[in-house]
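note to self — DONT lose this again. spent like an hour looking for the file last time. sequence + predicted structure for the chain T wanted, 318 res
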Amino acid sequence: MSSTEVGTVALPSGEAIPVLGQGTWGMGEDRDRRAEEIAVLRLGLDLGMTLIDTAEMYGEGGAEEVVGEAIADRRAEVFLVSKVLPHHATRRGTITACHASLKRLRTEWLDLYLLHWRESVPLAETLEAFQTLTRSGDVRYWAVSNFDTADMEELVELPGGTAVATDQVLYNLARRSIEFDLLPWCRERQIPIMAYSPIDQGRLLNNAAVGPATKRRSGHPKRQRPRPRATEPRGTRGPPHPRGSDRARSRVSAAAEEGAARNALSANDLHVKRRSSAVREIPVTTVTAIAPSPTADARASTGCQHEPFHMSFDPVSR
């Protein structure tokens, strides 16, 4: 059971999900780190981050295997998210990919299944597969990722397209382009935004305006957040630290405190002028990745994913 209270945001169905979750990009790539990664995810659950975001692409399925082991005896606590690669997103391919993800995750269902990004497969074909998976009980909700306004407009015109649960996109104080079109468009239709890279893979913590405000709000002015491993070039990671469990706890705790601080930051703290009520009112879910491989950033002003969720990833490759 989680020991920390985390805020929630409602999906279109009315179901509440955590505003802060765990991302897994970068996990499942090194078996020497497997135990630490599992421990990190379990500690994240203890801290109330019960949304876990993963994908078949991460570690070529390795991240899903790590998640499966981490939640083996705690599945009922978790809101589990995964994604299908665009080249698998045909009618048959989506179903096959989903079943493979379920096997790696050691579960009978996904709470949310996303099209990772869009390529050449017609949306209608992917949507038909999503609908088949929801009818069979393999998937509870379906959604998309890295869709712009034009993509979303096309999607909702398809039969059943308005059932989309969210659009997972890059969004943080340094990457705010969605505020001009996508965010207002989603607000008007009450479609939540799931934001990744909410602290820009840790770079925002060094911002002259954001950093001091975050430290004031967190109550730990001397705490220095570890550099997210997601920013390190592949192949540069050293051997596991002898006190890996302590490092994992420190990172997870820092991520949780930082998430709470972000939610408390005022416009004056950030020296940012709010441009419209849409920014305040649209549900935004933040996936934040924590430890050995931070990977999920997301801005959580009202809403969900783990970056030490996923979440810190390139909108094209993630």
